[in-house]
Design a protein that fits this description.
This protein is α+β, with helices and mostly antiparallel strands. The chain has 11 helices and 48 strands. A hairpin with a 3-residue loop joins strand 39 and strand 40. Helix 8 packs antiparallel against helix 9. It is globular, with a radius of gyration of 30 Å. The two termini are 29 Å apart.
């Protein structure tokens, strides 16, 4: 079939090379169709290493095994980068594959490496000027594996300095909130782009060691645990960015902010994102594994209750009684045993304290009442226990339902279920933010600070602190509790999905991984282009992002417009008025990384014009109908809302046809 189709194409339609590519792609499509893969997999061709360039003009040369090499005469910090080693073995593949557009490459290990199958997928992120890597590691054995994964990045010559994404001269450990390193070039200003290496999301808890060897090479080592038969992924990236040798901390932070891994991961399959150990998974360290652990103080729940008595003594049986008496403060509760996961006593803690773990994620500090218990062994003998070490209750097929409110973790380590009411007032660097407690998904205290990172149901994520020093919260078990703001370490909604997906409404991304869901309230924004100032309505901007500039030049933005077109230049204003749920602020432009309008918004004037053009689709004159169709087509998605509304009531067959065709384009 393919050769018949190709033979009928006029010779003038395509060059010999284009014809050859067309035939290869068509042949691959037929081969995939024969194997049943055509509907699920894009056509992949055999990959031959070659030079490619991104939209920023930086060159990339990818070897068969996925490593980056220096080729050509263009200035570059790349030496031998992204060399992958698994369990001490260097990754290789027999035949890499590539998509027809040359943007996505895939390599698979021909055999297991240390019991692990490896698939390496590399994507040229053209607009960002980055290479994104996804390493998928599948344990093929019947046992859990502890695995060392190493990534080596060699510079093409000694770097002038290796610094973290926050501008700190780097040695061997990323601090909290740091996510990567940059190799800064030597030589004349602007002659060679810096090489940015993005190793993790700033909120990732994955163990990571980074070693810098004499400013010639950076080695990143991940220590992973792969359960039997399961897959874990690593997502990392490299980018070439024009930075001045004297780049300050703010310039570095902005360059890295535009290339955050969680942003580069957009578009990846959810199966990859969920298994990526260095993306951070749920927001910050709100990993359910820490709130609802699989083991308690080293003991995994089994079919029987387990009683530990010091080192080396573990008994199996059942604690007698249908409840656990627990005293906290001046109140004692009888907690049904089906709610209890584990108890530890003074013999374990060594400080005279008892801890009670509940199946709903709570963890209470207090004392058992009475302090001892009776434990019936599986051989029917009974053992009185006066000095409790650890008691882990049998696993239950009927898990206790997670609380509907918030789980609050205090400085003492306690975790309480709380049901706050009313509003919380937060103090940010831009002013007050008032949010209902019910609108809060999570908060986490920043290390060494009174500030916390707050994640709201609206999609906003900000650094702030509580304005009140103390507040009262109701608890289902212990009544109203007064909590000092400085004692609150974390809040978490256990029933919420905390995956950090980009909002589908207008929002701004700010420095320090902050995000505001809201709109710019200024009627216009002015960018100073090379030809002079250009004024735009904020609603016509699809995405505003920081652009690369040469040393000494003012900061510039690129505005991608709805309906097509790009505008570049510095923003004329120093502040942006922004309004959202619970706030109305003037944001300094220097703190803005990105502005996004995911859906087009037409102002009143444009809506009136769209309405007139839709009416003209039914005009008596064919030329008028054609002109209206062309004008609406050029507006693109800006006109879609009006077109969909008109389609609901359209009766004329030709108008319906034109509306449907416009909506399908």
């Amino acid at each position: 079939m393919w050769f018949l189709l190709a033979s009928r194409l006029p010779a003038v339609m395509m060059s010999t090379e284009r014809m050859r590519r067309f035939i290869i792609i068509l042949l691959c499509g037929e081969m995939l169709a024969c194997t049943g893969l055509a509907q699920t997999s894009p056509a992949m061709l055999p990959y031959s290493p070659g030079m490619t360039a991104d939209s920023k003009g930086h060159d990339w040369y990818v070897e068969q095994n996925g490593s980056l090499q220096r080729q050509g005469d263009s200035p570059s910090m790349i030496g031998s980068c992204a060399v992958l080693q698994i369990a001490g073995q260097t990754f290789y593949t027999q035949q890499a594959q590539v998509t027809p557009d040359g943007r996505v490459m895939r390599m698979t290990s021909p055999q297991a490496m240390g019991g692990v199958n490896v698939t390496r997928t590399i994507t040229l992120m053209d607009r960002e000027g980055a290479m994104r890597y996804v390493e998928e590691l599948t344990n093929t054995t019947a046992r859990d594996l502890s695995l060392v994964v190493e990534l080596r990045h060699g510079f093409g010559g000694s770097a002038r300095e290796v610094v973290s994404d926050l501008g700190r001269v780097f040695k061997d450990v990323l601090n909290d909130q740091e996510s990567g390193v940059a190799g800064l070039p030597q030589g004349a200003e602007g002659s060679t782009p810096a090489l940015l290496i993005l190793a993790r999301s700033a909120r990732s808890m994955a163990p990571l060691k980074i070693r810098v060897q004499n400013k010639y090479q950076v080695t990143m080592t991940f220590q992973l645990t792969l359960p039997a038969g399961e897959t874990r992924s690593l997502v990392h990236a490299l980018a070439q960015v024009a930075l001045p040798p004297s780049a300050d901390t703010a310039q570095l932070a902005r360059a890295f902010a535009a290339l955050r891994l969680d942003r580069l991961a957009k578009g990846l399959p959810k199966s990859v994102v969920k298994t990526a150990v260095n993306l951070g998974g749920p927001v910050f360290s709100m990993d359910p594994a820490s709130w609802f652990p699989k083991d308690y103080w080293g003991l995994v729940p089994a079919d029987s209750d387990q009683l530990a008595l010091g080192k080396g003594t573990l008994l199996r049986g059942r604690m007698e009684g249908g409840s656990v008496g627990w005293r906290r403060g001046g109140t004692t509760l009888q907690v049904p045993r089906e709610r209890v996961a584990a108890v530890s006593g003074p013999a374990f803690a060594g400080d005279g304290r008892f801890w009670l773990w509940l199946r709903d994620g709570q963890r209470w500090l207090g004392a058992m009442e009475p302090p001892g218990c009776k434990f019936a062994l599986n051989n029917s003998s009974e053992l009185p226990v006066q000095n409790l070490d650890r008691l882990v209750f049998a696993r239950s097929s009927d898990e206790w339902k997670k609380p509907e409110g918030l789980l609050a973790e205090l400085a003492s380590g306690e975790r309480l279920s709380v049901v706050p009411s009313g509003d919380a007032t937060l103090r940010t660097e831009w002013g007050k933010l008032v949010t209902p407690w019910a609108g809060m998904l999570a908060c986490q205290r920043l290390e060494g600070s009174l500030d916390s990172v707050f994640v709201l149901r609206s999609g906003s994520r900000v650094r702030a602190r509580f304005e009140s020093a103390r507040f009262k919260m109701k608890t289902p078990e212990w009544g109203e509790q007064e909590i000092a703001a400085e004692e609150l370490r974390r809040l978490f909604v256990p029933t919420a999905e905390l995956e950090d997906e980009e909002p589908v409404v207008s929002h701004l991304e700010l420095v320090n991984d902050q995000r505001l869901v809201g709109r710019v309230t200024a009627s216009t924004l002015t960018l100073v282009t090379e030809a002079g100032p250009l004024t735009l309505a904020p609603s016509v901007i699809r995405e505003l992002r920081e652009a690369e500039v040469a040393e000494g030049q003012p900061r510039e933005f690129e505005a991608e417009l709805w309906g097509g077109g790009v505008v570049r230049g510095p923003l004329a204003a120093g502040e942006l008025p922004v309004e959202g749920e619970g706030f109305r602020w003037e944001l300094p432009v220097r703190q803005v990384v990105r502005l996004v309008n995911p859906a087009p918004v037409a102002d009143a004037t444009l809506m009136r014009r769209i309405g007139r053009l839709i009416q003209d689709l039914g005009h008596d004159q064919w030329k008028v109908r054609e002109a209206a169709t062309t004008a609406l087509r050029e507006m693109g998605t800006l006109a879609h809302a009006g077109l969909r509304e008109a389609l609901k009531s359209a009766a004329d067959a030709e108008v319906v046809r034109r509306l449907e065709e416009l909506l399908q384009e």
